Amino acid sequence: MKHLLNSSFSGTLKVPGDKSITHRALMFGALANGTTHIHLPLESEDTRRTMECMRALGAKIEESDEKWTVTSPGHDALHTPEDVLYTGNSGTTTRLITGLISGLGLAAKIEGDASIAKRPMDRVQQPLAEMGADIALKDEKYPPIKIKPTTLFPITYTMPIASAQVKSAILLASLFTKGETTIHEPSPSRNHTEIMLEQFGADISSKNGVITLTGGNALKSSDVTVPGDISSAAFPIVLAVLKKDSSITIENVSLNHTRSGILDVLDMMGANVTVEQTSQSGEALGRIHAAYTPKLKGFEISGDIIPRLIDEIPILALLAAYSTEECTVRGAEELRFKETDRIRAVVDELSKFGVQFTEYEDGFTVHPSQVDVMENTAVKGYNDHRIIMMLIVFSIISNRLLVIDDMSAIDISYPGFLEDLEALRKDA
Ligand SMILES: O=C(O)C1=C[C@@H](OP(=O)(O)O)[C@@H](O)[C@H](O)C1
Ligand SMILES: C=C(OP(=O)(O)O)C(=O)O
Q1: Which residue(s) pair with 328 in the sheet?
Q2: Is residue 215 in a domain?
Q3: DSSP code for 271
Q4: Do 96 and 32 reside in the same domain of the chain?
């Protein structure tokens, strides 16, 4: 990492495929009779967990260069897995397959790593139980998740929180359940499930926060080309904005409105970032150009924008630390239930360098600060990929080597992160 310091960054980059879309393509491919080709999938730890779970249910998945091929015997020929389904560090895998397996009327035991063991699963268990699922949790809240076979029926469900994982778990459970399931969302969360289910032939509609799915029909296999992940792109974008003389372009990245909240914040801050949309068939796609911006304005965000940038808040906190004005994030209590408590992690680590925070249960204010970084300061990544990548960007822009306890979790969402930055290094 040391050679990335004292440098500026330029050039063009393609970030790896979108994690949320890759998970869903594997699951819908496994449910749809026939063959689904997934082009440019995200080949990461989290998506491999979904791949292994789909194999354990009976889907055949072949891997070749930048393409995964899923061949399914059809949803009604999938079977109860022989072993425990291991979901690693992936909340998306854990919650979505709970809905998928309940909907198939199969049995399973699902568990993940130490972080997954602390993430709440009652948020999916409750609506699925209303549908007739039999799901047992440890202390009525946490994995391991034990599912017994039952027959489900459709429900109307008003979600207490905006969560694409909860929404998607219910939609997966209702796919082969006869009748109409309706979900009311409090604010729009990522809509990849709705877009892809329509492509796979499901009878689904979505309007003004109300999603309706009429279940009981088989899915049709379909090919998916995965766009670059804007949540991964956020790290090099912020690096370019904060690092003197830098100017980069990211090609082929998802611009789906339910995911692009970070671009709105960069705009509020007056950052030198421009966006060009290149296509809009299903998932919007385009190019983002980001360049060094010497003076960044403040921002205040809460409400509907939060689900649109939920995974980008750790890197936004870093941006805020270099703003000359106050920056506030509220309504983001969900951050406390991610791979780690991301509000705590960001406040604890950045405070070590003079960043002034006021912490709230649901967010934080970053006050204009004098950031002062000592070479070789020890920082903690909490085994959380997004905290680790934020700290790496911090180390680079401050030109000080930070000693991060463990960086291996980068592979959860962005294998090749350091290599990508290296390729953009100006004097490389
Ligand atoms: O559905 C998805 O693919 C995801 C939804 C979000 O979680 P919640 O649904 O818990 O908000 C997000 O934080 C996660 O990284 C991926
Ligand atoms: C929260 C995340 O993922 P998951 O919920 O799938 O673990 C993330 O990628 O930041």
Answers
A1: 300, 365
A2: no
A3: -
A4: yes
For 183, phi and psi rounded to 5 degrees? -120, 130
In a domain, 213, yes or no: no
Ligand-binding annotation for 338, yes or no, is yes
The DSSP code sequence of 294-336 is: S----EEE-GGGGGGTGGGHHHHHHHHHT-SS-EEE-S-GGGG
Question: What is the DSSP secondary-structure string of 38-101?
Answer: EES---SHHHHHHHHHHHHHT-EEEEETTEEEEEES-GGG----SSPEE-TT-HHHHHHHHHHH
ipTM of the complex, rounded to two decimals: 0.99
- Residue 69, classified by CB atoms within 10 Å of its CB into exposed (0-12), middle (13-18) or buried (19+), is middle
Per-residue pLDDT reduced to its tens digit, 322-347: 999 999 999 999 999 999 999 999 99
Q: Is 119 annotated as a binding residue?
A: yes
253 CA to centre of own chain: 14
**Secondary structure letter of residue 397 according to DSSP:** H
How many CB atoms within 10 Å of residue 64? 8
Catalytic (active site) residue 341: no
DSSP state of 15: P
| Nearest ligand to residue 168 Cα | 1
Range of the domain at 371: 2-16+227-424
CA–chain centroid gap for 210, Å, is 22
244 and 346 housed in the same domain:
yes
Pocket test for ligand 1, best of 24, 89, 166, 189 (most atoms within 8 A of CB): 189
The answer, as to whether pTM is greater than 0.80, is: yes
